[in-house]
Amino acid sequence: MKHFLYVSWFVAALMMPRDLSAVVISSGDGTGNTTAPADDPGWANVGAIGSFSGVYLGDRWVLTAVHIGASAITLDGNSYAVEGGTSVQLQNPGGLGLTANTDLLMYRITTDPGLPSLTISSGVPAGGSSVVMIGNGRNRQTTTTFWDDATNPWTETVEASADREGYKFDTGNTMRWGENVLSTSSGSPVVSVNAGFGDVVSLFTTFDKTGETHG
Q1: Low-confidence ranges of the chain (pLDDT < 70)
Q2: Among the listed residues 174, 132, 157, 134, the one whose alpha carbon sits nearest the alpha carbon of residue 30
Q3: Which of 147, 167, 176, 192 could form a disulfide with 23 if both were Cys (CB 3.0 to 4.6 A apart)?
């Protein structure tokens, strides 16, 4: 069974210790996967909020990141306006050493888009579980870039002497899906991430050459 991960702003990547606004795939030239996968977990429910992402939960509620903010969301080519006064910043549970606020925001849109409500799991998938990740964000370049990681910042080099390889960002944004496997490196795929807007309890994956076809 594959689990669905909505990618708003954070994807763990092999080379860049920073937040990414994209689903970056290693298959082909990186431009694929722009329509729903065969085992569709909810492609139509993920929409664009400017150059970022939001997910339609149901009953006119949208989930996004606080640092993105409540703005009109485009779902299947149609734009839906924000219903004023409905924005709610989600809270972390107490007693876990997390910030009170989390970088997650819910708000209602003024019109029902006619999409099904998503089923949200009450449990955490185990490390090693397959996931489908859907999000809107920056594209990658089609060719591989190689780096020598002995310097800071890394120095671009040729493949024969490279320590790292991956892709640079390209222009434009695209809704895309990819596959991955939840990390087992620490025994649990759960990590807490804070980009300055509050702790977000997140699931961790690694962008590498092994694993899923559309990793």
Answers
A1: 1-22, 210
A2: 174
A3: 176
